[in-house]
Amino acid sequence: DVVNELRLIKSQNEIALLRQAAQVAEVAVDSLRKSIRPGVKDCQATATAEHAARLEGADQCDFFISTDPELNALPPLGLEFRAGSPVNCEITVRYAGYWIQICRVFFLGKPTEEQTRVFEVCRDAYQAAVRSARPGATTDQVAEAALGVIAAASFKDCIPYGIGHGVGLDLPELYSVERECRDRLAPGVVLVLHPSIWVPKQGAAFVGGPIAVTENEALCLDNPVSEMIVI
C-alpha cells in the first residue's frame, strides 16, 4: 500500500515516458487503419499493428477488439471485418516499463445514424470526464461526469466496461474511476479514461486514452479523436 501511494504521483520524466508510450500506441492505430478491410481477420490486423509498435520500441503491445456491436471487445479471435460494421479497439502498450491504453473506433464504410450517435455520446462522455479531472476533484466526480452524459442519452444500461483507472509501472494502478471511489486527484496523477457504450444491433464505441492531472487541468497524453476513423 505504501508503494502504491508513492507511485500515484508521477514525475515529469515519467509523464514524458507515458506520453511516448501513447505515441507508440498511435503508431499501432495507424497500422490498424491501414490493415482493417472487409474479409481481413482481426488477428492479422492486430499482428501487423503489434509489429509496428515493437519497431517503435514497445516492450509489449496487446489488443482487445470487437468487430461487431453484438460482441464485446476481446483478444483477437480470428473474426473477419465486415463492411458496414464498427470496429472498436483497446490498445495496450508497455514502453520503457510504463503502461498506457488508448481506445479507438473505426467504421468500414459510411457510418449509420445509430452508430454515429453512439460514438458521439461516448466521445462527449470522455470529454466531460477529462474536463472534470482537475486537482481537488474526486474520482467519483470524474466517473459521474462521464456517466451523466451517457445516462442523459438513455444508454445507462449499455456500459460494459469501467470508466477508467490509474496507470504507470503497473496496469491498472490507483485510482479506479468509479462511483464508489472518492479519492482526491492531485497534480501528477495519471489516469486512463475510456467510457464505453455497447448497443446491440445499433452501434458500439470505446473512446479514450491517458491524461495527466496538472496544476490547472487534465493534459491528454495521446492524440484524442473527435470523429470515428472511417475506412
Relative strand content: 15-25%
Largest sheet: 5 strands, antiparallel
Span of the ends, CA to CA: 45 Å
* Fraction of residues in helix: 25-40%
* SSE pattern: HHHEEEHHEEEEEEEE
Low-confidence stretches: none
Outline type: globular
Global structural class: alpha+beta
Tell me which oligomeric state these chains represent.
single chain
Strand order of the largest sheet: 5-4-6-9-10
Average pLDDT level: 96
Rg, rounded, reads: 17 Å
Number of separate helices: 5
How would you sum up this structure, described in words?
Helix content is 33%, strand content 25%. The chain is of the alpha+beta class. The strands form 3 sheets. A 5-stranded antiparallel β-sheet has the order 5-4-6-9-10, with helices on both faces. A hairpin with a 3-residue loop joins strand 7 (196-199) and strand 8 (203-206). The termini are far apart. The model has no long low-confidence stretch (mean pLDDT 96).
Short description:
With 231 residues, this protein is an alpha+beta fold. It contains five helices and eleven strands.
Based on the model shown, name its key terms:
231 residues; alpha+beta; 5-stranded antiparallel β-sheet; 11 strands; globular
Summarize the helices and strands and which ones pair or pack.
Blueprint: H1 2-6, H2 12-35, H3 42-55, E1 60-66, E2 86-95, E3 98-107, H4 113-132, H5 139-152, E4 164-166, E5 173-177, E6 190-193, E7 196-199, E8 203-206, E9 209-213, E10 218-220, E11 229-230
Helix pairs in contact: 2-3, 4-5
